[in-house]
């Protein structure tokens, strides 16, 4: 419900909140049945270039498959010797279901869209959990993605190529670097032999921290 802003006390106390929650739960069950989730994960050696301030994920031939620069990349990857690329998608069946719902009514479509966001984030969490199991003794950074902070969306083509995402997961890009199916998430995770201090989750790093209804109620979305 937090994807709809329904974590705030105002909405919780609304007479419409119970019905909205029931409807969301029903749509979530339908979305789970319709979705065809896929996840991809691949770990690459990471090379830092102090002269240029860049971090390159290296392919099997030692050539860069993805090069990152900027404040966010430095914050997250400094001290890491490897980096993983993750992808999670709900597939085209969910998009088809969403389009059908949009034709019937935008209110339920908004609920369904929020359900899709929940499901794709859960898929990302599962992929990250599997990565942790595959990398014992290593410490993981938080996930971060193109389009977040100063990391541009224009990195998406290289990221998808590095994962062979079109062939393996049916994910492709529009001319504006938006992904199809629509409920698809890509992310980068740094791996290090030492505990990582840099984090981007939480209120201090959220762009909505000054206007968030949950914060006004003394709550956090990651605790709901």
In sequence order, what are the helices and strands, one letter per element? HHEEEHEHHEHHEEEH
Strand order of the largest sheet: 3-2-1-4-8-5
The CATH topology comes to: NADH Oxidase
Low-confidence stretches: none
Shape: globular
Compute the number of helices: 8
- Counted beta strands: 8
Describe it.
This protein has 224 residues and is of the alpha+beta class. 39% of the residues lie in helices and 20% in strands. The chain is built from 8 helices and 8 strands. A 6-stranded antiparallel β-sheet has the order 3-2-1-4-8-5. The chain has a two-stranded antiparallel ribbon with strand order 6-7.
Question: Gist?
Answer:
The chain is of the alpha+beta class and 224 residues long.
Topology:
Layout: H1 9-12, H2 17-34, E1 38-49, E2 54-58, E3 64-68, H3 71-77, E4 82-89, H4 92-104, H5 106-134, E5 139-140, H6 156-163, H7 165-169, E6 172-173, E7 179-180, E8 184-192, H8 213-216
Features:
224 residues, alpha+beta, NADH Oxidase, 6-stranded antiparallel beta sheet, 20% strand, globular
């Amino acid at each position: 419900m937090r994807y709809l802003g329904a974590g705030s006390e105002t909405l919780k106390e609304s007479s419409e909140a119970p019905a909205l929650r029931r409807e969301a739960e029903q749509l979530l069950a339908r979305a789970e049945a319709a979705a065809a989730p896929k996840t991809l994960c691949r770990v690459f050696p990471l090379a830092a270039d102090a002269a240029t301030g860049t971090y390159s994920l290296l392919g099997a031939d030692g050539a860069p498959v993805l090069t990152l620069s900027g404040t966010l990349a430095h914050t997250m990857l400094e001290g890491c010797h490897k980096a993983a690329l993750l992808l999670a998608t709900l597939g085209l069946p969910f998009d088809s279901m969403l389009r059908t719902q949009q034709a019937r009514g935008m209110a339920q479509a908004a609920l369904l869209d929020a359900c899709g966001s929940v499901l794709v984030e859960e898929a990302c969490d599962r992929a990250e959990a599997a990565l942790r199991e595959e990398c014992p003794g290593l410490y993981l950074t938080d996930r971060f993605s193109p389009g977040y902070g100063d990391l541009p969306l224009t990195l998406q083509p290289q990221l998808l190529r590095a994962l062979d995402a079109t062939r393996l997961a049916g994910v492709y890009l529009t001319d504006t670097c938006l992904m199809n199916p629509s409920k698809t998430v890509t992310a980068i995770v740094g791996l290090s032999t030492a505990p990582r201090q840099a984090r981007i989750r939480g209120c201090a790093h959220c762009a909505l921290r000054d206007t968030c209804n949950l914060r006004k109620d003394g709550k956090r979305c990651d605790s709901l």
